[in-house]
Every structure is written in structure tokens, then in C-alpha cells.
Inverse folding.
């Protein structure tokens, strides 16, 4: 009976995680497709460049705040968790503002070809950045506290607001790359506001005090290597679009984003399921139950790889109608590259869980070295292929980086496990 209850609870948790990620990802997917259809290529290219840079700050935000919170909130600060989570809200706003300011000089370099728009772009990015990152903190808080329905609530609100806001701007003849980014920020902030208020009010009921310096020290101790490694890892993934924007112009960036956008849904679902499994992997790792760690990793890897192969076949067979449905005739010339881009999800499916295992085992320096190698591959591939082959070269460079990272993560995990036996 106990086993059945546990199995039923696990199934419910997995269902809520999938619904949460599906809603959140679908909101971004629909709104980006709308922007690809409704904006001129140069404006959509500017939006894509802003979005790619913002994704880089998501990784930094996650490394210093969310990833440590997922482990430390359970293992170190469990007795004062409400005060701990309240402190994360304060840290979120301070960190996100700092990251927004960090983006300013990068924006000036990447979008140097559209200097007339830069003051407006910079202002919008800085003001919207704390709101843009808010759902990631709110949803992870609900994941940590096993209140998965709260995370679904954030994603559902975001799902309802964002596409409607984009379409509303279009109807009002106000849709530009900047107004679209403001819509993303406001939708994110509104979706997360209830969670932040709930957390703040609930934390007032806990008398336990928490040492702020100790929390910061723990976060940097855990997140330092995660941060540096994550920056290198994401930079290697995003480098092709930065290069396309800088060397080929916003229109090329728009083509690259339009091509990779259909590949996002399975990647985001795999990331969400892996993140949801992090608490279980951390607990098993802490108790020395390597058999359970391996069991979780192998089962999820098989699930991810099989799902990615099925999705890749779907993309390959129906590439032309998929592009027509998403973008009309605007990006129909990209059909031949769809199947190449879809191979990246298979590599991601093979390695996503093993990166999680490495973080749980705190093999952070090893993960950092893997990301350094991936970045070196990205620099060489991007410099060689993007200039000579254009958008096609960016796609091949991106695929090469993904495969390199996947192979290195799987080999490293196998090697470390073998040494531990």
C-alpha cells in the first residue's frame, strides 16, 4: 500500500512538473512565433539577440541563486527555510539589477549595427530584467517546497498574459523589438507577483533568524564553480547567434532563431524534468545510495533519448509544413537545415541527466573543464563556419558544441563512477 501511494505521488508530481514546464515553454514559444511572423526580420533579429543575452543572465542567476537554493535549501537551511527563501527574494532583485547593468556593454557590442535603437533597448533591458527573471525563482521555490501546483499557477498566468500582450501590441500598431521585450518583462512580473507575496508573508511567521553572511558564503562556495562553468557552457551554445548578429546582421540572427525555435519544446521539458529530479538525486547522493542515483539517471536518459529521436523524426518528416505553420513563407528556405538542428536534442537527451548527477555529486571543477572545452570548440567552429557558410555554419557550429558537451559529460560520469567503485 505504501509503495502504491508513493508511486501515485511520484506520478502526480511528474504530471504537475510536465504541465508547469509545458505552460511556461508554450507561452514563450507561441509569443516568439507570433513575433517571428509579425515583426520585420531586422526587428525580430534584434529581439532574438536581446533574448539570447538574457538567457546568459538566466544561467548566472541560476548558478548563484537557484541552483544553490535547490541543494542548500534542503540540506543546510532546512530549519530556517522560510527566512532563507525570503532572503532569496532580496538577493534576486539585487543580482538581477547587477546582471542587467552587466548586459549593457555586451549589448553595445552585439547590436553595434543598430546604434539608433541602442538607448531605448538598453533602458528596456535594465528596467525589465528583475521582472524577466522572477518566474525562475518563484517556480523553483515551489519545486523545493513540493508545492508544484504553485509553479503551475505562475506558468498558467504567464501563458495567458504573454501571447495576449504580444498580439495586443500588434493590433495597436505598437509592436517592435523593444515593446515586445517590455511585454515579456511585465508578463513575467505579473505571473510571479502572487508567489513573491505569498513567500514574503509566510516568512514573517517564522521567528528563526538566519546569518546572511553564512548564506552568501554557502552560495558562493557552491555556486562559484557552477557559475563559471555555466557561463562558459551557455556562451558556447549562444556564440553562433552572437556571431551571426554581429557579422551577418539582425536578419541572419532572425533566421537562426526561427530555425532553432521548433527545437526548444523537448529541450525545455527535459531540463524541467531533470531539475525536478534534482532533489531526489541530491538526497540519494547524500545517503550514499549510488544504485538509486544510477537508476534515476539511466531511466531518465533512456526516456529523453527515445523522446528526442521521435521528435527529430517528426521534424525531419514534416519540416516544410511546420515552418509554414509557424512562419508562413517568411523562412521557408530553411527547410533543409531543420533535420540537422534537430540532432542537437538527441545529444542533449543523452547528457542532460548526467550534468545533473555531476552537480549533485559536486564534481563542479570537472563540469567547469567540460564547459571550457565546449567553449573552445564553439570559438573555433563559429569563427570557421559562420563567416564562410552564414546561417548554415551557425547551425553546424551549434550542433558540434552540443555533441562535444554530451560526449564529455557521459564519459566523465562513467570515469568518476568507475574510480569510486
Amino acid at each position: 500500500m505504501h509503495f502504491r501511494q508513493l508511486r501515485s505521488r511520484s506520478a502526480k508530481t511528474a504530471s504537475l512538473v510536465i504541465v508547469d514546464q509545458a505552460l511556461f515553454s508554450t507561452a514563450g514559444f507561441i509569443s516568439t512565433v507570433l513575433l517571428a511572423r509579425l515583426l520585420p526580420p531586422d526587428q525580430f533579429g534584434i529581439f532574438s539577440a536581446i533574448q539570447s543575452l538574457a538567457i546568459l543572465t538566466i544561467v548566472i542567476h541560476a548558478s548563484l541563486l537557484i541552483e544553490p537554493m535547490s541543494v542548500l535549501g534542503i540540506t543546510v537551511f532546512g530549519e530556517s527555510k522560510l527566512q532563507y527563501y525570503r532572503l532569496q527574494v532580496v538577493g534576486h532583485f539585487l543580482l538581477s539589477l547587477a546582471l542587467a547593468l552587466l548586459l549593457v556593454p555586451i549589448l553595445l557590442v552585439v547590436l553595434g549595427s543598430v546604434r539608433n535603437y541602442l538607448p531605448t533597448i538598453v533602458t528596456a533591458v535594465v528596467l525589465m530584467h528583475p521582472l524577466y527573471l522572477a518566474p525562475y525563482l518563484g517556480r523553483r521555490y515551489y519545486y523545493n517546497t513540493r508545492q508544484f501546483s504553485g509553479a503551475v499557477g505562475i506558468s498558467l498566468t504567464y501563458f495567458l498574459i504573454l501571447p495576449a500582450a504580444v498580439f495586443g501590441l500588434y493590433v495597436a500598431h505598437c509592436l517592435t523589438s523593444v515593446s515586445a521585450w517590455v511585454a515579456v518583462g511585465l508578463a513575467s512580473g505579473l505571473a510571479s507577483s502572487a508567489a513573491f507575496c505569498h513567500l514574503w508573508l509566510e516568512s514573517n511567521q517564522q521567528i528563526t533568524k538566519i546569518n546572511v553572511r553564512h548564506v552568501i558564503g554557502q552560495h558562493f562556495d557552491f555556486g562559484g564553480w557552477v557559475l563559471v562553468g555555466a557561463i562558459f557552457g551557455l556562451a558556447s551554445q549562444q556564440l553562433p547567434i552572437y556571431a551571426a548578429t554581429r557579422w551577418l546582421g539582425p536578419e541572419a540572427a532572425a533566421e537562426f532563431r526561427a530555425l532553432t525555435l521548433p527545437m526548444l519544446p523537448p529541450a525545455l521539458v527535459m531540463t524541467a524534468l531533470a531539475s525536478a529530479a534534482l532533489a531526489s538525486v541530491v538526497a540519494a547522493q547524500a545517503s550514499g545510495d549510488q544504485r538509486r542515483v544510477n537508476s534515476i539517471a539511466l531511466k531518465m536518459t533512456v526516456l529523453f533519448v527515445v523522446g528526442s529521436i521521435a521528435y527529430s523524426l517528426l521534424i525531419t518528416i514534416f519540416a516544410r509544413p511546420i515552418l509554414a505553420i509557424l512562419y508562413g513563407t517568411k523562412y521557408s528556405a530553411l527547410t533543409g537545415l531543420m533535420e540537422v538542428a534537430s540532432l542537437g536534442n538527441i545529444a542533449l537527451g543523452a547528457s542532460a541527466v548526467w550534468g545533473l548527477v555531476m552537480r549533485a555529486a559536486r564534481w563542479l571543477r570537472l563540469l567547469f573543464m567540460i564547459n571550457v572545452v565546449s567553449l573552445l570548440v564553439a570559438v573555433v567552429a563559429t569563427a570557421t563556419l559562420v563567416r564562410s557558410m552564414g546561417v548554415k555554419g551557425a547551425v553546424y557550429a551549434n550542433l558540434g558544441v552540443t555533441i562535444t558537451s554530451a560526449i564529455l559529460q557521459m564519459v566523465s560520469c562513467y570515469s568518476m563512477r568507475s574510480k569510486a567503485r
Notes: Residues 1-210 form one domain.
